[in-house]
Write a structure and sequence with these properties.
Blueprint (H helix, E strand, L loop, with lengths): L24 H9 L6 H11 L6 H13 L1 E4 L7 H12 L13 E4 L4 H8 L5 E6 L9 H13 L4 E5 L2 H5 L3 H14 L9 E5 L8 H13 L4 E3 L11 H18 L4 E3 L7 H14 L12 E3 L2 H14 L12
Parallel strand pairs: 1-2, 1-8, 2-3, 3-4, 4-5, 5-6, 6-7
Helix pairs in contact: 2-10, 3-11, 3-12, 4-5, 6-8, 9-10, 10-11
Amino acid sequence: MTPTASPTAGDTSAHGVFDDIVGSESSLRRFLHGLPGVDQVGCEARAAGLATRSIKTTSKAFAIDLAIRMVDLTTLEGQDTHGKVRALASKAMRPDPADPSCPATAAVCVYPDMVATAKQTLGDSGVNVAAVATAFPSGRAAMDIKLADTRDAVEAGADEIDMVIDRGAFLSGRYMDVYEEIVQVKEACARPDGSSAHLKVIFETGELQTYDNVRRASWLAMMAGGHFIKTSTGKVQPAATLPVTLIMLEAVRDFREQTGQMVGVKPAGGIKTTKDAIKYLVMVNETCGSDWLDPDWFRFGASTLLNDLLMQRTKMTTGRYSGPDYFTLD
């Protein structure tokens, strides 16, 4: 039931590799339902066991800086203003203005109408602009609207697109509809110069009901060419959890073994503390290996995590905790 072709590692276009599988709804369903079932007890026990790992001193300092570099600093509220986005972008570039050695975050994640503001503020800093699209967070819109949403964000300068799948279609077994939706949104990420914004595919795992569905959604998104698979919008609970992320990490690991292609993972929602972030980094290393310990292949979708990382970083360098108002509140 698994593909055997081995395209070049890093090529995230899976077209051709899975042509025999995605040729029809029935063959796609057979493949997805033929994936090994998830042992719920075993998965949760494995995640809990990895969460008990502890790292200290220089390893902890390295993990904190790595986690900062992996943050997609996010504001996705109806009350967002251009001023708030500019302030967030400035913080992404210089998270701790008092310490120039503090690394920048990976990206700033905003609604499409705020992309131009974020892009202008970030300039050539190297911090990416990610835009949520496709009728985020519900995904309930006609396909032409979703594609227009994506194209508008890319035209405004988005480096990355975070799309949401049609969970209703997925849960009713219309896997081909979801597959084709991802393919079309990826095509809409293309720029006139031939480059393309990277595509992150959001499952909203809190609505997928079972771990088996998380595994199926992971493979479906990777087969359709997603560059990243992402747990959640942050608007539905539960959002990111360690067991769900473990299943997704196992999926990208297995996908690479079968195809030679790497796909990133982004847990989002509910990750608030340095201790939480380190648990995820340990899980990445133990499940996929050090190749994924890089912002190109693992991200945290977060709005409050960064401040805790900065507080812990300051504690390690100065020996004392800063007050909660030392860093800006986002």
